[in-house]
Amino acid sequence: MEAMNQFLAAANAILWNDYVLYVLLGTGIVFTFRSGFSQYRSLTHGFSVVRGKYDHPDDPGAINHFQALSAALSATVGLGNIGGVALAIALGGPGAVFWMWVIGLFGMATKLVEVTLSMLYRNIDNPGNPHGGPMWVVAEGLKLKGPGWAKLGRVIGVIFCLTTLIMCMTGGNMFQAWNVGEITQAYFGIPSIVCGVVLVIVVGTAILGGITRIGAIAGRLVPGMLALYLIAALAVVAVNFDQIPAMFATIIRGAFGPLEASGAFIGGTFGYAFLFGMKRALFSSEAGMGSSPIAHSAAKTKEPVREGIVAGLEPFIDTIVVCTLTSLVILSTGVWQRSAEATLASDTGFMQTEVGQWTLDNNTLGARTEGRWTANQQVFVLFNGDDNPVSGNQLHQINGLIVEGEGDALAVQWGSVSSSATPTLHDGGIYASYVGATLTARAFDTVLPGLGKWLITIAVWLFAVSTMISWSYYGEQSMVFLAGDRSVLPYKFVYCSLILVATAGLLRTDVELDNLSSFGSGVMLIANLPIMWIFGGQAIRAYKDYIHRFDSGKVGDDHEPPSLNDLISGKDVL
């Protein structure tokens, strides 16, 4: 297992190289200009399409535009919006938020192209159960070039499906279940495996009904969970309303220049603000990965471009709206630059453990300013050492784990750090470590104690369930491409069984699942990028033709929008 982890870590370093991300960003920029800034159409015409003005029961497909968008959003809006944004700010500073906005806007054009292509090449032999995605695009598209090209298209399609299955089983399923189990057990003492059993029942019931049931559930679940989270976030921002001008000033300043260290924040440079903001936006929206086109391909429509325009709303909702509000919660409450919660003993210093390696020489834990320390809690101390390219100064962290000492006393088990010279303490403060979602929860707790615990737990459950049911469909369509319809039921059984594996504590999920899901998503990205570049011109031409017909009045509102109840339930296309 260790050898596999080392191989996957090395492979992921290549797959998720910064230059790959730059290519993905460049793809969004190119398609933005080639489409004439299609973002405008997504934000105007796209909302009309989602509202149901163009839905028709006789069009090929299984679900309406609203349900297709909800199903795709349920896979992208998830734990990354809670924990990933917090990580980006903690590492890159507030300037990362600005670059999230930029990448999110360009990602709208990327989504337009990849979804339009999947709609153009989707298989509608059974109009009520269509199949689509990058695997069908490359297989059917290259088949038109000749027999030899057809074989290559099939091979690329198979590779994409295999990596999609890796991602759906790990990042889209087991990692979600594991997080639910861990957070629920930590906050409420409910065993993780019990959470797993509940998830199997909920997810199994949803996915056994196919895309029609998944679309119906997503149509109700996604708006509800987004509303819950956004209302809570807006309430926190409203309490700190006077901080908004300063927040935006800090975001802009950090986006184009270095930010000085403050409290727990060790400082950030322009380069790393850009890098972490870009990574968060790309990971969060899944633009370019080729996953969400699989869900959109189930939409009922006779106009392929129409669903591509709807898909452009995904990065806007996921990154521009949800990620931004998470950012504002963290920034307005000041938890990203919080003060130390205890102080080291005055005689504490560094001792050398081996050449170039250092640790603290005092394990004593000072009294906490608010509340109490608990065993297994993580903390850190700031020190001055070698130049730090991330912070633009010489500040670093040395991490520690609180352990039980003699009697009832608690002590800190400090890790080791590298430094060419003897490190020196920065301020002597001991900081509680809040990583990812825990930092967001801490931000909510500063406004109303206990809110973070309940809100984050509920959000994790809702976001995880929605992500799991959507990714199950992505895997299902991959199995159809690989082995036909008969493979779907056995696949669903395995999918649900892995939920129990993840919550039973049988894997070091923080290592294996992260490596596997990163590998799967990385190869998906590498496989999908050439498909977009090879066939993207077709999507752009189809888009411009549709917009020309729309502007000339040849494509108009066919009927009044349905009631919200019919739209959400999908009755408008039954």
Poorly predicted spans: none
Rg to the nearest angstrom?
A: 25 Å
What global shape is seen? globular
Question: Roughly what is the average pLDDT, rounded to an integer?
Answer: 87
CATH architectural category of the largest domain: Up-down Bundle
Tally of separate domains: 2
Number of strands: 9
Helix/strand structural class:
alpha+beta
User: How much of the sequence is in beta strands?
Assistant: 5-15%
Tell me the distance between the termini. 50 Å
Helix fraction, binned, reads 55-70%
Summarize the main sheet.
Answer: 6 strands, antiparallel
Order of helices and strands: HHHHHHHHHHHHHHHEEEEEEEEEHHHHH
Write down the CATH class of the largest domain: Mainly Alpha
CATH third-tier fold name of the largest domain: Amino acid/polyamine transporter I
How many helix segments?
20
